[in-house]
């Protein structure tokens, strides 16, 4: 496994839509392993999408256990995910490894249902709520060339410089 370099805003690849995965093979499995390693290497990383490392395929990895413990699905590998239902809205603070210097307030659905495939091509259905739903929606946005910056409640009042903590 390898930690892959993460593209940062304003890299133009972050704005390009990703294409569907067609081949569920050993190479895909190896790439997903690298993607998970990259997510875990970032401070506070709970999700990552393939376009963030320059691969324009519809692949998302989310694992919010560092924030929620076992009150979630655990590690989710979502290949070709589709948001098929959502309910409620909530404002929450988001950050992104591809926008390392800022966080912002973003409106997201509170509960979602996502249909996806796993790394073997098997269909999966996930129902997510709260922070887990927010993380999945955030990562799925990357597949369409969107960043949390595009969904800020207000660019004037809801974009914040990320705090830097000394060790």
Radius of gyration based on Cα positions: 15 Å
Mean pLDDT: 95
Q: What fraction strand?
A: 25-35%
Helical stretch tally: 3
Distance between the termini: 28 Å
Summarize this structure briefly.
With 167 residues, this protein is an alpha+beta fold. Helix content is 20%, strand content 34%. Strand 3 and strand 4 (99-117) form a beta hairpin.
Task: Supply database-style keywords.
167 residues; alpha+beta; six-stranded antiparallel β-sheet; 3 helices; 20% helix; 34% strand
Structure overview:
It is a single chain. This protein is α+β, with helices and mostly antiparallel strands and 167 residues long. Helix content is 20%, strand content 34%. The chain has three helices and six strands; from the N terminus they run αββαβββαβ. The protein has helices at residues 26-41, 65-68, 130-143; strands at residues 47-49, 59-62, 76-96, 99-117, 123-129, 159-161. Strands 1, 2, 3, 4, 5 and 6 form a six-stranded antiparallel beta sheet that branches. A hairpin with a 2-residue loop joins β3 (76-96) and β4. The radius of gyration is 15 Å and the shape is globular. The model has no long low-confidence stretch (mean pLDDT 95).
């Amino acid at each position: 496994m390898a930690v892959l370099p993460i593209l940062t805003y304003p890299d133009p690849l972050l704005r390009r839509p990703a294409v569907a995965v067609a081949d569920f093979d050993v190479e895909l499995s190896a790439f997903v392993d690298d993607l998970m390693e990259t997510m875990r290497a970032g401070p506070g990383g709970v999700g990552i999408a393939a376009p963030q490392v320059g691969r324009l395929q519809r692949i998302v990895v989310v694992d919010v256990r560092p924030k929620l413990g076992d009150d979630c699905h655990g590690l989710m590998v979502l290949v070709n995910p589709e948001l098929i239902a959502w309910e409620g809205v909530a404002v929450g603070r988001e950050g992104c490894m591809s926008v390392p210097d800022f966080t912002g307030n973003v409106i997201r659905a509170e509960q979602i249902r996502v249909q996806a495939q796993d790394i073997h091509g098997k269909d999966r259905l996930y129902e997510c709520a709260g922070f887990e739903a927010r993380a999945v929606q955030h990562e799925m946005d990357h597949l369409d060339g969107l960043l949390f910056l595009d969904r800020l409640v207000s660019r004037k009042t809801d974009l914040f410089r990320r705090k830097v903590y000394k060790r």
